[in-house]
Design brief:
Layout: H1 2-14, H2 19-38, H3 51-61, H4 70-77, H5 81-92, H6 96-114, H7 119-126, H8 131-142, H9 146-153
Helix pairs in contact: 1-2, 6-7
Length: 157
């Protein structure tokens, strides 16, 4: 674990001119620091949710797993797709697909305002195969197209 953290710190240092690499390495670093706390946080409601679900939520929210789809979640859970879908919906109040979509779109928003990554690259990172579908989903969540959102919320340096 410490080797991973040191590796991400070095990547941040080395990515001086590349904002995309620096941003991704920074997210991974933050995740590695926060991961132990996430499992015990109110976000996961550890006392109220089964451990398998806490573990699955940690994996889904890991920035390295942004391209996950429902089949990846099923493979990580060791439940059948039908059984996991039912259990997840009971515990979370939404489907696995809906939850994965929220995680992807929220991360896409962060990447949009903190990097110059093209929309095509961003779609690839979060596992969307269609730019038009991604744009429609993003607009549904944030009320404007990704490019307009970037222009309106870009962090000025």
């Amino acid at each position: 674990r410490m080797k991973k953290i040191i590796s991400y710190i070095n990547q941040i240092r080395e990515a001086e001119g590349n904002e995309i690499e620096r941003g991704i390495a920074t997210k991974f670093l933050l995740f590695n620091f926060l991961e132990p706390m996430i499992g015990q946080s109110q976000f996961l409601q550890a006392g109220k949710r089964p451990q398998w679900l806490n573990d699955l939520l940690i994996e889904i929210n890991n920035p390295e797993n942004l391209s996950w789809d429902v089949s990846d979640a099923v493979a990580h859970s060791h439940y059948s797709k039908t059984h996991l879908a039912r259990l997840f919906k009971e515990e979370m109040g939404k489907s696995i697909g809906e939850y994965l979509q929220e995680v992807k779109i929220n991360n896409a928003r962060d990447i949009l305002v903190n990097s110059d990554m093209s929309l095509a690259e961003l779609c690839d990172v979060i596992g969307h195969s269609s730019l038009s579908h991604f744009s429609n989903v993003f607009k549904h969540y944030y009320g404007m197209a990704p490019g307009k959102y970037r222009a309106a919320h870009r962090i000025k340096e």
